[in-house]
Amino acid sequence: MYTNDEYGGPDYYDDYGHTGDPHLDMEYERAYYSNRMPENVKTFILNFRAAINEGVMFDIQNMYENTFPQLSDHHFDKSAWPDETEVGPLVDNDKVFMILYKELYYRHIHARIPGGPKLEQRINSFFNYCDFFNLILSSKKPVLLELPDIWLWELVDEFVYQFQNFAQYRARLTDKTQEEMEQLLNNNSNVWNILCILNVLHSLVDISNIKQQLEVETNGGDPATVAGEFGSQSLYKMLGYFSLVSLLRVHSLLGDYYQAIKVLEPIEIHKKSQYSHIPACQISTSYYVGFAYMMMRRYADAIRTFSSILLYIQRTKQLYSARSYQNDQINKQTDQMYHLLAICLVLHPQCIDESIQQVLRDKNYHDNMCKMQCGDLDAFKSFFIFACPKFVSPCPPPADAPFEDYVKDAMEHQLQVFMDEVNQQKDLPTIRSYLKLYTTLPLGKLAAFMDQSANEADPREIANLMIHLLCFKHKMKNIVWTKGSSGLEGKFQSGSELDFYIDNDMIHIADTKVAHRYGDFFIRKIVKFDDLNRRLHNINIK
Amino acid sequence: MTRYVKMEDGNSLTISEMLNSIERYNLDHLKEIEDYVEEQARENTYDLEANLAVLKLYQFNPHMMDLEITYLILLKSLTNLPHTDFVLAKCLLLPVQMQDNTIREIIYLADILEQCDFQLFWDRVEMNPSLFSRIVGFYDSIRKFVCHVVGITFQTVEKSLLSKLLGGLDDGTLNQWIKRSGWKVQGHMVFVASQDENIKTKNITEKIEFDTLAGLMASMM
């Protein structure tokens, strides 16, 4: 473990004569707070420790979800919580509690300190996670620790987030001092290493037997029969489950969409289960699954995944309206999913639920979808960039790389792959718009439409059109999931609303016609009148 | 032939067992999976998961990256069209791979195949046949993909057009492909399938039965 001393005390700084050095500022801050740790913060820490040690779930959850954020807002809005040297003595250096406290401490630094965490803090946070996972994984008997599921989810999620954040920090060579570069190259090449992350997540999956548990459950059995000593403990079981979801995320960040979907094989994404009670986890799962489907050109699956989670969010919206760190993330991901859904619907038009469609009629979506339909590549790009995950390269830039900013490289690559796909399809919306007007259309006539200058299309243009039509059929026939828990499996289907076939030189078109729907309208009105009626009955005139 | 990979503890796992564990990231097994890629090229077999695992190992260990193996993996993924394996592989490529001229050429070929510009593809392939000769059965795999696209697009198609799409086949070979796909020659036309049964206009109308509303109405009383 690194301590401050190893990074140099005051002498170290004197040599370089920095003034206003952030480390010194922190030093000052620390001195300031150590003298006056607010009384209610001190009480909170003591109560928190007691609750954790006694395993009072309700109290832990309440302090974790409410008190900690409140105190953060009040006392530590843009500064760190008291560090371990101050908190340790307060709690008899309780090892487990200190690991958990530091998890929150570094998470708070990542979230709240302007300019982000320092290298040293990133490193220490990494080692703190190592301590936590070692505690959990290398014990001969299951560790008897109970934490609320929301904390376990956020802990694993944060672990992956800090990895991603470090990978981006690591790729930015422009804002590092010589010392920082040396530290990164020489001492800390294993810190936040991808293999380490994968190792932890795989180990949590293995120790909990979560895959076997989910499989047995899918087949209607009792998961307890295969859970094993560790996996029957809620702590291990939930960590195992959240690790599967985190693996989905890690693989997505690396652009490995096949593995991303594959790790989820034991999970039936479209079913509610005993694991789906953490909304943030549900939403995050659907976001990454939908994104991976989109990249694999499985638009029907992507659209189904996004619509179903967006409907769920719409119905439970009131839960996320309050501003909190959890809801900010959920709201951002919701926005991103509407963007991705818009992209998918441009590439693969199909009917979706009316209430989701309603949101996409909003000006921002509507205008941009029109632009995309007209082949505006920039509209595709900006939607993609806004909505894609924060891709990372698993390796830092090579030691001899010029001092440049490599953060965007990983994203640029995925963007390129996606834009290549869009480019391959760029003529399809125009063809679709013509086909929509007819039930049969001779090839020559459509070719003339496409080439607006000529009245009679020449053979070259017809041959060209033929290529586009073949492309249309090819791109609109994709693997669609039909059954079973593997999200990779499926059958080739044409799910888009417009289809056609060519009989020699005649195109026969099949469209999907949707009659006006009135049921939904009436249901809304009925509910409204019922409500009104009830209110009227309840009025007491005295 | 099932391939086995030796583990540090002396046990052997099959490639697919190894790929399902954390061992998939172990650099010690890279050589073994690379050999397996070459075997796929030689023996006209295919294992997407193993091939992606190789690319992932390159992604984690750029100094181990082998361009020749990368070519094989990318070309093999084209043989599995209409599946999107090529896209999956492309997403894992490193900047150095993206800058390689041969890889650029393969990406270009994938691009025209995805756009179904088959005649251009066959012209282009002729310019650089040595690249494809390492993949046994490459041309026929592409022809299979062409037949897939033709099969979902046409009810009847001119025989001469079909021949061009399949890379200028002579009459005998063309007839074999037609037979294999279950199509029928009718003069200068080829009957593919009667598509009007599958591709029909759909009408979605809302049907609300009284029964579905009964509960709602009852609760309003």
TrEMBL record, chain A:
Annotated compartments: Cytoplasm
InterPro entries reported for this sequence: eIF3l, PCI_dom, TPR-like_helical_dom_sf
Residue ranges of every copy of the PCI domain listed in the record: 305-516
Keywords: Cytoplasm, Initiation factor, Protein biosynthesis
GO molecular function, one term: translation initiation factor activity
Keyword Transmembrane helix: no
Entries under PROSITE patterns matching the protein: PCI (PS50250)
A cellular component annotation (GO) from this entry: eukaryotic 43S preinitiation complex
Keyword hit for Chaperone: no
GO BP annotations, alphabetical order: formation of cytoplasmic translation initiation complex
Source organism superkingdom: Eukaryota
Protein's job: Component of the eukaryotic translation initiation factor 3 (eIF-3) complex, which is involved in protein synthesis of a specialized repertoire of mRNAs and, together with other initiation factors, stimulates binding of mRNA and methionyl-tRNAi to the 40S ribosome. The eIF-3 complex specifically targets and initiates translation of a subset of mRNAs involved in cell proliferation.
Subunit organization: Component of the eukaryotic translation initiation factor 3 (eIF-3) complex.
Family per record: Belongs to the eIF-3 subunit L family.
HAMAP family: eIF3l
Name of the featured protein: Eukaryotic translation initiation factor 3 subunit L
Organism: Hermetia illucens
TrEMBL record, chain B:
Transmembrane segments: none
SUPFAM superfamilies assigned: ARM repeat, Winged helix' DNA-binding domain
Location within or outside the cell: Cytoplasm
GO MF assignments: ribosome binding; RNA binding; translation initiation factor activity
InterPro entries (alphabetical): ARM-type_fold, CSN8_PSD8_EIF3K, eIF3k, PCI_dom, Transl_init_fac_sub12_N_euk, WH-like_DNA-bd_sf, WH_DNA-bd_sf
Primary localization: cytoplasm
Function description: Component of the eukaryotic translation initiation factor 3 (eIF-3) complex, which is involved in protein synthesis of a specialized repertoire of mRNAs and, together with other initiation factors, stimulates binding of mRNA and methionyl-tRNAi to the 40S ribosome. The eIF-3 complex specifically targets and initiates translation of a subset of mRNAs involved in cell proliferation. Component of the eukaryotic translation initiation factor 3 (eIF-3) complex, which is required for several steps in the initiation of protein synthesis. The eIF-3 complex associates with the 40S ribosome and facilitates the recruitment of eIF-1, eIF-1A, eIF-2:GTP:methionyl-tRNAi and eIF-5 to form the 43S pre-initiation complex (43S PIC). The eIF-3 complex stimulates mRNA recruitment to the 43S PIC and scanning of the mRNA for AUG recognition.
Name of the molecule in the record: Eukaryotic translation initiation factor 3 subunit K
Species this chain originates from: Hermetia illucens
Lineage of the organism: Eukaryota, Metazoa, Ecdysozoa, Arthropoda, Hexapoda
